[in-house]
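Recap quiz, item 2
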Amino acid sequence: MIYNPKIIEAKWKKKHKKFNFFKINKNSKKKFYILNMFPYPSGYGLHIGHSIGYIFSDIISKYKSGLKFNVLNPIGFDSFGLPAEQYAINTGNPPIKIINKSIKKYKNQLKNLGVFFNWKKIINTCSSKYYKWTQWIFLKLFNYYFDKKTNKAKKIKKLINKLKKKTKWNKLNNKNKEKILNKYRLAYLKKSYINWCPKLNSVLANEEVVNGKSERGGYLVFKKKMVQWHLRITKYINRLLKDYKYLNWPKYIKNIQKKWIGKKKVYFFIIKLRNKKLKIFVKKKFDKIFNIIFNFPSNYIDFLLKRYKNKKKIINFINKKNYSFKTYKILIIFKNSLKQSINIYISNYYKNNYIKNIYVDTNNNKLFNNIKNNFIINLKDKIIYNFLLKNIYIYNLNDLVFSRQRYWGEPIPIYYKNGIPKPIKIKYLPLKLPFIKKNIFLNKKFQLNKLKKWTWDVKTHKITYNKFIKKKKHIYPLDTNTMPSFAASNWYYLRYISPKYDKFLIKKKEYKYWKNVDLYIGGIEHINGHLLYSRFCNKFLKDINIVNNKEPYKQFINQGTILNNTYSIYKYKNRFISYDNINKYNISHLQKFYIDKKYIIKNKKLDINNIKKNNIYNYTFILNNKNEFLCKKKIEKMSKSKFNIITPEEIIKVWGIDCYRLYLIFLGPFNKKKIWTIDKIKGMKRFLYKIWNFILNIKKYKKYNNTYNSIFNNYINKINLNYKKLLIHKNISLFMKLLNILIKKNISSINIKKKFLILLSPYIPYITEELWYKLGQNKSIFYERQPIIKSNKKEYVKYIIMINNRKKDIIFINKKNNNLNYIKLKIKEKKYFFNKKNFFKKYIFIKNKILNILILQKKN
RNA sequence: GUCUAGAUGGUGAAAUAGGUAAACACGCAGGACUUAAAAUCCUGUAAUUCAAUUCAAUGAAUUUUGCGGGUUCGAUUCCCGCUCUAGACACCA
């Protein structure tokens, strides 16, 4: 019988459909909630980089299940967001259609990885059954404020009672009342900047802006102020910082987040400029200032050259980095000329890098020019001495902007009664996102403010037509914004526990069992976004008694990104320039385009004919002097837009699922970045064949012998230790070593074979199931217990003998004689020792490890 | 620019309370089997130098974990300073 992965994998995929891996054993109280960050179902499907995380969590959960834990390993889809909307603009299809199609594709791909997900617990954030509770949380945030004394969220009604006692609350009109409450609400309205493109007449995401111009059309983009919903995360900063002690996260991950929160003690002083007072923040108590700089996007000013203490050094520094000292200037634009606080500052140091962070108020172009001309201060001439410094705490983290001017997101369940925001009553949630017909999207950005039916009837509690507003008094306009993508991911880990429960966002009974996530797996790019926001959300939910745990994710491991080669070409005006000639052109005018690898002939050479044939770019290509056109080759993160994606299917098709799983894990440590290569997969295939042949070729029946047992136990110990440390890639080497030993010693004990298969089963489910079945077993291998060795007594101690720090020998000493004198006796007659009899010796003896003999030549 | 991580043979990598550097694989070279190829199996494989060679068995020294320093009997591991690479940077998810 020859190992044929295609047949075996197809067979067991079918059988596993009926296999309830996640069946809960009520006798066991041990639970293990393992979670992967859920995917965004993009139309392109998942690539290798995603699948490695699912395979990792699958191996861990199969192992934990083998230790008789009840395991929860769910999957869902984070389906609101920009890409679906962009796809809709390109094709004219409504986003929901695309998303459903993509989810289907994803499900198929996920089911083709040998991964056991709890499919009964699937969630989808764009379904109204899910976002009902996202809206519910938003309304709670709206109706709560942060009480400084208790350090907790409390109902806004309590605040009103307090205000009634202290102030003349009742005499205020509703608008003024709301103005005050807005300062306290955890979800509140405030003006902040957005990217505004007048030509497209729409708001753009950062991603849609390239070098200050819109990605589609290349029109100028400006920063414009708009009233937006914000979440008051800053009130929770002290708690977020304090609770790191409960988190079993890698230190550097915590540090990234801590730095992002960026709590700092700073000093500030006030200077006068042309009758305007400016408050300027500095990090340290300096007594001189040479230059002041904004550290974007935070709201304080930093010293650029804090490490240099005198002016000469600054000048040297500037010369070194090719900055001209002449243009060493600051430009200040006022956020609001009445309030006179600084908002913007540009220096030439930032050059092109920071253009995207400069805010320009387009409503006020004249003001902009005025300021530009009048407020350029050359600090070369103005050194400010001796001013008063006061200190305060500032944070890098700002409150979260919660409004998005897009269609494809959760509608914000708020209507405006005479301009005052009012929540829709909870029992009338969800406020459903209206379905939009096909043709409306084509080539247009669609937003809720273009709807004809988007007002709220307070009597019927239903959405109704805008035209009724003037006629009837009980109809009010709804908020036309939607929520950002993090709104859904903030709390999704709770929904998995009871995804079908209608009455509340969690079923308390089930929550009490599963609680928070034991092991969370995801990309490092989410640390400052999702991971921070969902910690904040969890703390709020704890304040309002929905959850009991301080933190949502006990342990976190970040998944290393998979990188692959990218090829790009550069355009200058209407010509493409070969990469080796690029220095001749002004970098800021060059436009970069990624190229598919199939258009690369050799190394970096571009196949221009092929490109022209396929009508990809209709511009002239300027060749180099060898008559070639070279691209830029770089190693970058896998992404569809960079044409460097590898999909699991193309590998599985050739090698099979087991082989693919084994190889991905074997590539290296899970949390380190990896550059993609396929070269080494052959070794995995060989290993699978070896296993197959070892298990099935029952040649001679050797009696099961104790020494093999101890070797085996030793390996089992190591394997379990690696699981504990989450270094599961190392186990594959151990499996290989173990198999090599078993084959060499010609072992054919059925018990050993069985144990070996159980050890392998989390990694390679299909081949082990098949062999398990072939060994005459009826039940699935995943019902078996993973072997654990309780104690492993060793009789001998290994010593490394070194002379002058060089290894000379390895000796084994019985535990009874574990001392220096005995070892000395033992090595006395050895050549390396005997030779140097007459020299002075110094012994460095480390018990159970090493004997280092330093031999020094005697001076006459 | 700010922040974070990383750098070990031809390649992926292994080795952490500081103690055998290169396990396990890939590749390559040589051999076995085969008409041939594939597959499989066996042997060798960090570098340099020296010794030894009829057969057999090899033996010894030095260097080496991106670069330059430091601490230590001993550093891939700890400290300081560089270089390079990748990632994040608030409306991508």
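Residues 452 and 806 of chain A are 84 Å apart (CA to CA).
Residues 271-278, 282-388 of chain A have pLDDT under 50 and may be disordered.
End of item.
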